[in-house]
Amino acid sequence: MIFGKLGDKDIMAMEGRFHYYEGYNMKQVTFPERVMYELGIKTLFVSNASGGMNPNFKIGDLMIIDDHINFFPEHPLRGKNFPTGPRFPDMHETYDKALIALADRIAEEKGIRVMHGIYMGVQGPTFETPAEYKMYHRMGADAVGMSTVPEVIVAHHCGIKTFGISIITDLGLEDTPVEVSHEEVQEAANRAQPLMTEIMREMIRRS
């Protein structure tokens, strides 16, 4: 964890994250968000690399996450309830609408192309088969990845406002199978990251 300031804002950044596919359980995956809550963090910005299933998407697009579908086999709130939130938390506005609107304004001002969509969280570590891409898209998802959802659920349970962006690093469109490698995903993410950083930095400055 890295602590510092961005302008006059105190910030904490994570240098990487714990993935469920690496063998960590959900308590371990989401432990950083518990620490954030104890340290008084009020807003969480999350990002990820994901496969796009929306035919309007292009590789390198930024997708602002409007909502998610939790397709992990283990729920991060399973077990004894932490007193940071209710046993059955409401999930109608998991991603803060005011932050989403702010990001849209900033992107428009700076001429940065942003898309919107639903993120599907799955366990990995394999990339999706063509049939899985098709299924996830028909279930209502625009992008799929192997992170983010557990962390966001726990942050939301703690009352932390959340904003998320997916970088579309590969495409799994129906009837258009595309082979993908980890190296290609990293390359696409590295190209789009400066634009995502520009939006988030300005959001932090204005919020």
UniProtKB/TrEMBL annotation:
Residues 2-205 form the Nucleoside phosphorylase domain. SUPFAM superfamilies: Purine and uridine phosphorylases. InterPro entries: Nucleoside_phosphorylase_d, Nucleoside_phosphorylase_sf, Purine_phosphorylase. GO terms for cellular component: cytoplasm. The keyword Transferase applies. One of its GO terms (biological process) is nucleoside metabolic process. Belongs to the PNP/MTAP phosphorylase family. This is purine-nucleoside phosphorylase.
